[in-house]
Amino acid sequence: MPEHHLSEEVLMAYAAGSLPEALSLVVASHATLCPSCRADVEAYEALGGSLIEDIDPAALPEATLSDIFARLDADEAGGASEPWGSTHTPARRDFENSSIPRPLRDYLDQDLAALAWRPVIRGVEEAEIKLAGAGVRTRLMRIKAGVAMPRHTHAGEEVTLVLEGGYSDAEGHFARGDVQIADPSVDHQPVADEGEACICLVVSDAPLKLTGPIGRLLNPFISY
Fold it and tell me: What are the ChrR-like cupin domain coordinates in residue numbering (predicted)?
């Protein structure tokens, strides 16, 4: 059971369909791995459905009503709905790596081992996931067992979901299914657990800023 979760506000926004696609992917993947948050999302969706039933149809534009009923019909049919506003077409293929949550699996066209991993620094690789939305990066990160990331903070917000392995920093230990939200107030140095590589889904809206003695000198030359 994950110990680090998303806030109620984020889960409610997801249930309402108001999150950007990248964050919706994180929430859906986390909820797949976290029974507690999955139950909360289902409760918020049920609440939203009951509120819709109480709305006077005459108070809503016809287009809005048709959109609502189309989504309700899809849910009742038992189909897995895409995040609202998503333009993504699911791949729906079977992977050998069962550690990939179903929502994320639908965005990939191959197993984790076959992805186009790009070296970032020694012991750290990334594979980009192309999603709609300007100014937001979505990627998988793979950190070799026991490797420490450079000490850094963030110019914006970064949301990290652990898929395999785990890591530790000043805020605690993060294992499979855990989510960490880092912003400019967080200055940390994540260290991957020993024994296996740590693989994470990461969404960020601004580059990180190195804070170590040498890192500060390198900031003008990086855009990571």
Answer: 111-203
Percent of the chain with pLDDT over 90: 57
Contact 150, 210 (CB under 8 A): yes
Q: Could you tell me if 203 and 138 are in contact, meaning their C-beta atoms sit under 8 angstroms apart? A: yes
Domain residue ranges of the chain, discontinuous segments joined by +: 111-221
What does the block give as tokens for 115? 């992805």
- pLDDT tens for each residue of 68-99: 445 445 544 444 334 433 444 444 445 555 67
CB 2 within 8 A of CB 179: yes
Contact 182, 173 (CB under 8 A): no
Q: If one looks up domain 111-221 in CATH, what number appears?
A: 2.60.120.10
Kindly report, residue by residue over 34-57, the tens digit of the pLDDT. 999 999 999 999 886 655 555 555
**Residue among 100, 103, 74 nearest 91 (CA):** 103
How far is the C-alpha of 191 from the C-alpha of 143, rounded, in Å? 9
Q: Of 154, 165, 143, 149, which Cα lies nearest the Cα of 203?
A: 154
Distance CA 179, CA 15 (A): 18
149: number of Cβ within 10 Å? 21
Rounded to an integer, what is the distance from CA 3 to the centroid of its chain?
A: 16
User: Cα torsion for 110, 111, 113, 118, to the nearest 10°?
Assistant: 50
How far is CA 175 from its chain centroid? Answer: 14
- What average pLDDT does range 148-161 have in this prediction? 93
Q: What is the DSSP code string of 76-116?
A: HTT--PPPTT----------S-TTS-HHHHTT-SS-GGGS-
CB 93 within 8 A of CB 102: no
